[in-house]
Amino acid sequence: MLSGKTILIGITGGIAAYKICDLIRMFKRSSANVRVVCTPNALNFVTRLTLQSLSGNEVAVEQFEVNEFKPEHISCADEADIMVIAPCSANTFSKIANGCCDNLLTSIVCAFNKPVIIAPAMNCNMWENPIIQENFARLSGFEILEPESGFLACGTRGQGRLCKIEKIYDKTVEILANSRKLAGKKIVITSGGTIENIDPVRFLSNHSSGKTGTALAQNAAAQGAEVVLITTADAPGGGIKTVKVQSALDMQAAVEKESGTADCIIMSAAVADYRPKEVSAQKLKKADDNELSVKLVKNPDILQELCKNKREGQIIVGFCAESENLIENAKAKIQHKGCDYLIANDISRSDIGFGSDENEVYIIDKNLNIKKLDKAPKTVIAAKILEEVL
């Protein structure tokens, strides 16, 4: 998720410093490059060798440990995409708020013009001190993850514990994802399973939850895109324009309305192939015989029509849910439909696909090149799909 990103972690002198070892592991597992800078007092709580072994990089401590002409605090600031200071002591917190640059870490913060996350940790009385709270108010331009309440190392209870490292990790991912890479792009996404009425009570549908479409919409919006989500599922919120539809014909009309100005259209919805030819205005009553016949007619092929009428430079992505011969059927479908990419997944497996929080898919392009995305949460799969097709 963080491949190609460099995260600079600043550690100050506090007992919570040992927790940052796990945070470094989390970042490394997500393929981030991790650099560490410590205040001298931080090394009283966690060793330099430990941090170097976990990060895979030298740990910077002293202000003038310069191995090249470029000053180290400028070099560190230039190389990193984001800076995370955790734990941040009351001393360092106050120095940053007042522009002090008396060690390498505070000098880097002063020269850093990209996002900075600060996670303070201190005694509860220190956190509640009016001067600390005044400094807190001064740091409005930073992302502050306030300390949590609980049992503190000093033996008291109150607000001062370092927030959960998972919260620091999630906030880092969120900020880096919101890098505006898709700013100026309009992306139309469909999601959910369409509903085809038989009568006022009964309908035909499928098991699609719309989770992948929602994840695609949220990820694209986080990267600055103008997103229109056309869905049968619940609206995700977060400022995403959502058009609620029900049937395949409803979805077709909504897609046609938005597609002309779209840079990319992602058809992740499970659109019904057929609908009842006639919809009863009244509930169908149970008959004496044991059979009920409902005549079905084909629904429009929204994806194929989009591909026929696509404008130059527009990217169209289809989805393919198969229970057998996944790759063969997917290749045949992308050639028949004419889309730029096809996302294929195996719905015969109970651990992925419809209704699951995880998926495993293959991305096939119009030249029949195939890339497998191994099993992962649908949020991760969505991010990788967008990265691949856009």
Walk me through the topology.
Elements: E1 6-11, H1 20-29, E2 33-38, H2 48-55, E3 59-60, H3 72-79, E4 82-88, H4 90-97, H5 104-111, E5 116-120, H6 124-128, H7 130-138, E6 143-144, E7 148-151, E8 157-161, H8 165-177, E9 186-191, E10 196-197, E11 203-204, H9 211-222, E12 226-231, E13 241-244, H10 248-259, E14 264-267, E15 274-276, E16 296-298, H11 302-308, E17 315-322, H12 326-337, E18 341-346, E19 358-365, E20 370-377, H13 378-389
Parallel strand pairs: 1-2, 1-4, 2-3, 4-5, 5-6, 9-12, 9-14, 12-13, 14-17, 17-18
Antiparallel strand pairs: 7-8, 10-11, 15-16, 18-19, 19-20
Please give a structural write-up.
The protein has an 8-stranded mixed β-sheet, sandwiched between helices. It is an alpha/beta fold. It contains 13 helices and 20 strands. Helix 1 packs parallel to helix 8 and helix 3 packs across helix 5. The chain folds into 2 domains: 172 residues, 3-Layer(aba) Sandwich (Rossmann fold), CATH 3.40.50; 204 residues, Rossmann fold (3-Layer(aba) Sandwich). Helix 12 links the parallel strand 17 and strand 18.
